[in-house]
C-alpha cells in the first residue's frame, strides 16, 4: 500500500495544511486552547513560545503523535480523520523530532527506506544497489555527502538530523515539521540545515519550525506565530515584526536584552577560590590553567565538543585527570570525588538536567537536599528530617521555586522551576565556587533572564562563578572575564570592554583574537 | 528572601496542575495499607474456614517460622532492588552459609564461632557480587546468575553427600524453634532486623544514597553519592542476610542441606515486589516488604493447613502477585487520579454517548 519512491524525483508542491481550533489538555491542565495555524506551500512558518507554551504539543498533534481533544486538521481542503504518526506520514506529513530517532545499528539506507524496501528483479530479494543509489541522491539533496551504507550511530547529531530530513523526502512527504532542530547543533551545522530548508521552500514544501533562538527564526522563516500559555498571541509575516516585538509577545512583558546583567567586576586582589593548574585529560583537553576569584563570573566559551564540559567534569572529580591540580580556596583537592569537591565548597550544575541533575520521580525536598545528605546527620547516624525539611524550604524560597509543596514530584515542575530546584540544591551546600554548565539550555527567554540574575546575584554575594556556554552573547552580558576553549585548549582570554561576542566568536572557532 | 524578589515579580503558583497529584510517599503508604488490609482479611478468612489454623493460641506466631527465612532474604534483596540491581545468588548463598556453618561445627569448632565465620562467608560472597558489578560494570543479573551456580555447587561439594545434623540444643533453640512465651526467637530477630533495615533505608545517609541511586544513578553520582560504595554495601547486606536465613533454616530443621535455599529466592523476590518496591529501583518501603512477607507466608501456610497441596498454594501465590501488579500499574499510570476516577475513565465512555471525534464525518 505504501508506494515505493518514484523514479521521477520532482516533487509536487506541498498542499496547504491547517489545524483549526485545536485544543489539548494533559491530566486536566490545558496546554492548547483553540489554536488555528496554517502551513502554506513554499513557506516556512515558525512557531515561537516559552517553554511550556505548547509549541511541541501543537506540532505533535499536527503530525499525529498526539490526538487533539477538539479541533480539526485540514489537508489540502480535506478534513483528516484521527491521525497516527504512521498515517500522517502516509499522507505526506513528517515530523523531524528534536533528537533524531534513527535506528543506530542500521545503515543510512535502511533507515531511509524502512517500511518501503525496494524489491529486486526476483520479487523476493531486496534491491540494495538500487536503494543505495537512490539514497545517495536523496542525501545529496539535503546537502549530505556520506556513504549511504554507513551506520546511523556513527553520524554526528547534525548529520542524523539531515538524514531525518532526507527520510521525509524518501517517504514523499511534502509537509515537514522541525521540532527545535537546532538546539543540539553548532552554528555552522545549523546554517547547513537552514540551507536545506531554504531549498525545500523553493521546491514548494510546507515547513513548520520551532526554535528558541530568535535570530534564527527571523532569518529563516516567512511567517511567525507566537504561543503563550496555550493561546496564539501573535501571527504575522516576518517582515512585520522585529526581535523585541517577538520577545514581548512571548513573555508578555518587555525583557531587557543584550544589556549587561551587572557592571563588570575587577576582582584583582580578592581571594582566589578556585585555581586549576595544567589540568589535562587526553584526548578531551590539555594543559588547562585558570583561576576564579571570589565574586567573579568567569566564562568558558567554546563550541559543543570543544572540551568545556569535560574540563568541568574533571575539576568536579567525575572524570580522571592525566595530570594537573585543582585548589579550592588554596586547599589542594588531591583525589577528587564529587563528594570531596562539594565538601570543599565547589559545586557543579550539570548541563544535562534530566540525566545528571534531577531525580524526576522524587519529591522536591529530597531533590534539594541530595547534595548535603551527610550534613543532615546531627547526632548519630540518623538523618534529622525536621532540619531537612526546614533547609529545603528555605533554599527553595531563596531560588523562588514554584511548587505546591515540598512533596511535589520534581517531574511535575516546569523546566525553569526544575532548574531553580537544582540551584537550591547547590545553595544548600554553601559553595564558594560554582560551575554552571549551560544553565540556560532549553530554557525560554524570561527564565534565561532570571538565571542570569541569579548568577549575578550570587556573584555579588561573593560566590566565584564559572559559566560554561555556547551562546556567546550570553557570556558577554554576564561574565567579567571569559576564556575561549578551542579543541581542548585555552586559546585566549578577554575581559572588560574587550569582552564582546564577536571577539569570543572569532576565538572559539580557532581564529585569532585580533 | 527570594533571590529574585527584586528582579521578577513572582507570579502566584498556578493551581490545578500539580495540586491533585498524589505524592510518591502517600501512594506508597496507600499500598502498604492495602497490604495490611489484605493481611487482616486473610487471617479472618482462614480463622473462620480452616479449623486448626490458629493451632491452639500461640500457633499463629509459630507459623511465622515457616516463612521468616523468605522474609530475611527479601529484606536483603530489597536493598539491592532499591538500588536498581538484583541478587539472584541469595538462595544459593543461604544454602552455602548453612552448610559452611554445619561443616565447621562438625570439624569441631564451637557452633557460635562456626556461625560467625559462616555469616562472614555470606558477607564476603555478597562483596564479591558487589565488586564484580561495580568494578567491571557487569549487569548484576548476569553476575549473580553466575555466582549462584558457583555458590550452590560449592555447597553441594561441601555437604552434599552427608549433610551434618543434630546441632547443640542451645543453637537449635535460639536459631531455630525456641520461643519467649508465645513469641519465637526468629520472629524477634526478624522484627529487629526489619526495623534496622527500615530505618537504614529511610533515615540514614546510606539509605538516602541507595534510594537516589535507584531513581537516577547518574544524578546521584553528580550530587555527591558514592554510587559504587552504596551498591557494594547493598550486595554485602544481601549476602549477609541470605546467610542468616540459611543459619535459621538449619537451626529450625536441626540439619543443614545443600539445597534449602533453592526454593527461597523466587518467593523472596515475589515478596519484595508485592511489598511495593519498584523492580527498577528507587521506589518502595521496607514496611511494605515486611507486611508482604506475612501476607504471602500466611496465605501459603493457610492453604497448606487447610489441606490444599503445595501446588495449589504456589498457584494462588502467582495469582495474587499478578493481581497486585496489575493494580499497581493502574495506580501508577495515572498518578494524579484516584482509583474511582481511574475506573470512571476506563469504563466511563461505555455508559455515556461517545464524544464526537474529529474526522468522524469524513471517513464515510
Distance between the termini of chain B: 63 Å
From the coordinates shown, what is the CATH architecture of the largest domain in chain A? 3-Layer(aba) Sandwich
β content of chain B, as a range? under 5%
Indicate the structural class of chain A: alpha/beta
Strand content of chain A: 15-25%
Q: Write down the oligomeric state.
A: heterodimer
Major sheet details of chain B: 2 strands, antiparallel
Assign the CATH topology of chain B. Answer: ABC transporter involved in vitamin B12 uptake, BtuC
CATH C-level class of chain B is: Mainly Alpha
Biggest β-sheet: strands ordered side by side in the sheet of chain A: 6-7-8-3-9-10
Helix content, binned percent of chain A: 25-40%
CATH topology of the largest domain in chain A: Rossmann fold
* Rg of chain B computed from alpha carbons, rounded to a whole number of angstroms: 24 Å
Main β-sheet of chain A: number of strands, strand sense, barrel status? 6 strands, mixed
Count of individual beta strands of chain B = 2
CA-based shape of chain A: globular
What's the number of structural domains of chain A? 3
Structure overview:
The complex is a heterodimer of chains A (514) and B (364). With 514 residues, chain A is α/β, with parallel strands linked by helices. Chain A folds into three domains: 226 residues, Rossmann fold, CATH 3.40.50; 174 residues, Rossmann fold, CATH 3.40.50; 65 residues, no CATH class. Chain A has 17 helices and 20 strands. In chain A, the strands form four sheets. A six-stranded mixed sheet of chain A has the order 6-7-8-3-9-10, with helices on both faces. In chain A, α4 crosses α5 and α13 packs across α14. The longest helix of chain A has 16 residues. Chain A is globular, with a radius of gyration of 25 Å. The N terminus of chain A is likely disordered. Chain B has 364 residues and is mostly helical. Chain B has one domain: ABC transporter involved in vitamin B12 uptake, BtuC (Orthogonal Bundle). Helices cover 68% and strands 1% of the residues of chain B. Chain B has a two-stranded antiparallel sheet. In chain B, α1 packs parallel to α13 and α4 runs parallel beside α6.
Amino acid at each position: 500500500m505504501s508506494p515505493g519512491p518514484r523514479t521521477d524525483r520532482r516533487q509536487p508542491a506541498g498542499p496547504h495544511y491547517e489545524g483549526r481550533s485545536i485544543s489539548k489538555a494533559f491530566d486536566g491542565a490545558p496546554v492548547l486552547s483553540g489554536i488555528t495555524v496554517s502551513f502554506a506551500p513554499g513557506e516556512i512558518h515558525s512557531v515561537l513560545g516559552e517553554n511550556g507554551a505548547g509549541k511541541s504539543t501543537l506540532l505533535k498533534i499536527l503530525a499525529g503523535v498526539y490526538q487533539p481533544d477538539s479541533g480539526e486538521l485540514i489537508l489540502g481542503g480535506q478534513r483528516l480523520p484521527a491521525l497516527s504518526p504512521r498515517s500522517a506520514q502516509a499522507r505526506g506529513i513528517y515530523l523531524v523530532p528534536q533528537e533524531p530517532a534513527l535506528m543506530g545499528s542500521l545503515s543510512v539506507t535502511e533507515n531511509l527506506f524502512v517500511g518501503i524496501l525496494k524489491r529486486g528483479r526476483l520479487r523476493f530479494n531486496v534491491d540494495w544497489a538500487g536503494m543505495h543509489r537512490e539514497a545517495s541522491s536523496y542525501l545529496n539533496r539535503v546537502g549530505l555527502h556520506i556513504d549511504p551504507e554507513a551506520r546511523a550511530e556513527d553520524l554526528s547529531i547534525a548529520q542524523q538530523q539531515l538524514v531525518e530530513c532526507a527520510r521525509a523526502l524518501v517517504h514523499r512527504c511534502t509537509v515537514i515539521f522541525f521540532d527545535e532542530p537546532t538546539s543540539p547543533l553548532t552554528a555552522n551545522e545549523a546554517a547547513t540545515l537552514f540551507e536545506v530548508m531554504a531549498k525545500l521552500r523553493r521546491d514548494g514544501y510546507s515547513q513548520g519550525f520551532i526554535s528558541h533562538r530568535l535570530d534564527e527564526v527571523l532569518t529563516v522563516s516567512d511567517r511567525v506565530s507566537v504561543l503563550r500559555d496555550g493561546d496564539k498571541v501573535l501571527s504575522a509575516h516576518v517582515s512585520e515584526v522585529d526581535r523585541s516585538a517577538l520577545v514581548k509577545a512571548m513573555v508578555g512583558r518587555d525583557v531587557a536584552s543584550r544589556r549587561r546583567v551587572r557592571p563588570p567586576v575587577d576582582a584583582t586582589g580578592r581571594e582566589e577560590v578556585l585555581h586549576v593548574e595544567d589540568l589535562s585529560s587526553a584526548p578531551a583537553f590539555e594543559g588547562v590553567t585558570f583561576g576564579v576569584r571570589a565574586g567573579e563570573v568567569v566564562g568558558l566559551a567554546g563550541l559543543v565538543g570543544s572540551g568545556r564540559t569535560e574540563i568541568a567534569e574533571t575539576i568536579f572529580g567525575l572524570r580522571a585527570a592525566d595530570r594537573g591540580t585543582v585548589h579550592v580556596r588554596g586547599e589542594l583537592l588531591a583525589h577528587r570525588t564529587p563528594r570531596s569537591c562539594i565538601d570543599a565548597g565547589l559545586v557543579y550544575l550539570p548541563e544535562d538536567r534530566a540525566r545528571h541533575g534531577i531525580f524526576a520521580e522524587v519529591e522536591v525536598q529530597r531533590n534539594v537536599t541530595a547534595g548535603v545528605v551527610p550534613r543532615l546527620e546531627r547526632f548519630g547516624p540518623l538523618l534529622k528530617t525536621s532540619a531537612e525539611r526546614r533547609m529545603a524550604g528555605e533554599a527553595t524560597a531563596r531560588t523562588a521555586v514554584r511548587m505546591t509543596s515540598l512533596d511535589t514530584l520534581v517531574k511535575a515542575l516546569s523546566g525553569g522551576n526544575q532548574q531553580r530546584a537544582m540551584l537550591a540544591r547547590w545553595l544548600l551546600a554553601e559553595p564558594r565556587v560554582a560551575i554552571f554548565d549551560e544553565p540556560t539550555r532549553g530554557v525560554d527567554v524570561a527564565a534565561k533572564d532570571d538565571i542570569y540574575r541569579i548568577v549575578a546575584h550570587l556573584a555579588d554575594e561573593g560566590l566565584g562563578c564559572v559559566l560554561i556556554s555556547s551562546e556567546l552573547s550570553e557570556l558577554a552580558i554576564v561574565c567579567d572575564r571569559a576564556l575561549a576553549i578551542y579543541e581542548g585548549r585555552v586559546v585566549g582570554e578577554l575581559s572588560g570592554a574587550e569582552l564582546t561576542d564577536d571577539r569570543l566568536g572569532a576565538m572559539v572557532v580557532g581564529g585569532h583574537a585580533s | 528572601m527570594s533571590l529574585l524578589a527584586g528582579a521578577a515579580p513572582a507570579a502566584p503558583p498556578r493551581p490545578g496542575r500539580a495540586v491533585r497529584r498524589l505524592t510518591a510517599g502517600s501512594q506508597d503508604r496507600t499500598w502498604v495499607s492495602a497490604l495490611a488490609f489484605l493481611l487482616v482479611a486473610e487471617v479472618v478468612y482462614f480463622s473462620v474456614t480452616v479449623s486448626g489454623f490458629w493451632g491452639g493460641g500461640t500457633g499463629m506466631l509459630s507459623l511465622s517460622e515457616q516463612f521468616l527465612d523468605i522474609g530475611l532474604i527479601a529484606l536483603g534483596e530489597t536493598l539491592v532492588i532499591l538500588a536498581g540491581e538484583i541478587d539472584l545468588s541469595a538462595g544459593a548463598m543461604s544454602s552455602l552459609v548453612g552448610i559452611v556453618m554445619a561443616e565447621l561445627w562438625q570439624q569441631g569448632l564451637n557452633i557460635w564461632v562456626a556461625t560467625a565465620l559462616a555469616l562472614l562467608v555470606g558477607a564476603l560472597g555478597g562483596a564479591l557480587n558487589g565488586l564484580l558489578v561495580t568494578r567491571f560494570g557487569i549487569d548484576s543479573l548476569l553476575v549473580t546468575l553466575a555466582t549462584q551456580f558457583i555458590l550452590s555447587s560449592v555447597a553441594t561439594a561441601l555437604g552434599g553427600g552427608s549433610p551434618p545434623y543434630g546441632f547443640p540444643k542451645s543453637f537449635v533453640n535460639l536459631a531455630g524453634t525456641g520461643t519467649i512465651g508465645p513469641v519465637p526467637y526468629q520472629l524477634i530477630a526478624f522484627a529487629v532486623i526489619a526495623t534496622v533495615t527500615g530505618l537504614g533505608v529511610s533515615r540514614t545517609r546510606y539509605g538516602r544514597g541507595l534510594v537516589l541511586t535507584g531513581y537516577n544513578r547518574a544524578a546521584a553520582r553528580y550530587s555527591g553519592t558514592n554510587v559504587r560504595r552504596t551498591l557494594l554495601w547493598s550486595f554485602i547486606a544481601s549476602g549477609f542476610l541470605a546467610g542468616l536465613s540459611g543459619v535459621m533454616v538449619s537451626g529450625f530443621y536441626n540439619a543443614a542441606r545443600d539445597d534449602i535455599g533453592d526454593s527461597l529466592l523466587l518467593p523472596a523476590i515475589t515478596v519484595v515486589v508485592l511489598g511495593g518496591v519498584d523492580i527498577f529501583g528507587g521506589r518502595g518501603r521496607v514496611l511494605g516488604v515486611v507486611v508482604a512477607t506475612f501476607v504471602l507466608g500466611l496465605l501459603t501456610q493457610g492453604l497448606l493447613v487447610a489441606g490444599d497441596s503445595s501446588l495449589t498454594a504456589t498457584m494462588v501465590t502467582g495469582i495474587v502477585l499478578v493481581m497486585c501488579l496489575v493494580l499497581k500499574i493502574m495506580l501508577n499510570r495515572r498518578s494524579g487520579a484516584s482509583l474511582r476516577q481511574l475506573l470512571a475513565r476506563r469504563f466511563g465512555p461505555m455508559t455515556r454517548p461517545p464524544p464526537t471525534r474529529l474526522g468522524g464525518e469524513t471517513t464515510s
